[in-house]
Design a protein that fits this description.
- This protein is of the alpha/beta class.
- The protein has one domain: Spore Coat Polysaccharide Biosynthesis Protein SpsA, Chain A.
- The chain has eight helices and 16 strands.
- The strands form five sheets. Strands 1, 4, 7, 8, 10, 13, 14 and 15 form an eight-stranded mixed beta sheet that branches.
- The two termini are 19 Å apart.
- The relative contact order is 0.18.
- The mean pLDDT is 89.
């Protein structure tokens, strides 16, 4: 099953980093957030990736080209220039890097990937968010309802510290990464090829508007409610939250070091 990752946006709210690199390449713990996402999916056995490139897409291409070469032992014949690789990377990933246009919106990027995906169920997420969502449970839920699309509904990150007050006395103060109230679209989709019929070939389409709205109107959009960790990286503050969790050895999305 293919996993589509949209990695072409400009990331204007993280300009401190994205002036020189695309947002999916902003690092957490010395690795791009895109690498963390791939590790999450491959932990559950999903290892065939299609990455939709746009803004500074060459940066992502170069990273994976270098990653493939620098993570292996090599023998070089200096006379012939022949290079022999051995002891390759532990990452058993098959990655297609597809240029979907600098200015393309999310829906248009998805539509441009249709020839690569074909007529099979596929997964999809953004290239700037991490979670500890159980992808096997997510897929099972999607199969169970038989609709065209499933999104993962999550609690949004808390912007401010939480106060538990009783009779004007603060009983608890915590900098929790997520609120307990409300649900938002956290990506981590499972999609049927029928969703392509909801995306026009004309114009520049945003997936979250027309296509998703029409899927919902037709009763074809379901929500898998995820009550545990989820965090996007829209701002420098978000990056610091993720960095602090990683540095403290308390990164909930690091599922590849947990037992299934």
């Amino acid at each position: 099953m293919y996993v589509v990752i949209l990695a072409g946006g400009v990331g204007t709210r993280l300009v401190e980093e994205t002036e020189i690199k695309p947002k999916p390449m902003v690092e957490i713990g010395g690795k791009p957030i895109l690498w963390h996402i791939l590790k999450h999916y491959s932990h559950y056995g999903f290892k065939d990736f299609i990455i939709a490139l746009g803004y500074k897409g060459e940066y992502i291409k170069k990273y994976f080209m270098d990653y493939a070469h620098l993570s292996t032992d090599i023998t070089i014949n200096m006379k012939t220039g022949h290079v022999k690789k051995k002891n390759g990377s532990d990452e058993d990933w098959n990655i297609q890097l597809i240029d979907t246009g600098i200015d393309s919106l999310t829906g248009t990027r998805i539509k441009k990937l249709q020839p690569y995906i074909g007529d099979e169920t596929f997964m999809m997420t953004w290239g700037d968010g991490v979670s500890d969502v159980d992808l096997n449970d997510l897929l099972a839920f999607h199969i169970s309802h038989g609709k065209l699309a499933t999104l993962t509904a999550v609690h949004p990150p808390a912007r401010f510290g939480h106060l538990d007050i009783h009779n004007n006395q603060v009983k608890e103060f915590s900098e929790k990464p997520q609120t307990k109230e409300g649900l938002i679209n956290g990506a981590f989709f499972v999609l049927e090829p029928g969703i392509f019929d909801y995306i026009s070939d004309e114009g520049n389409i945003q997936w979250e508007r027309g296509p998703m709205q029409n899927l919902a109107k037709d009763g074809q959009l379901m929500a898998y409610v995820h009550e545990s960790f989820w965090q996007c990286m829209d701002t420098l503050r978000d990056k610091r939250v993720l960095e602090d969790l990683w540095a403290a050895g308390n990164a909930p999305w690091k599922v590849w070091e947990h037992k299934k």
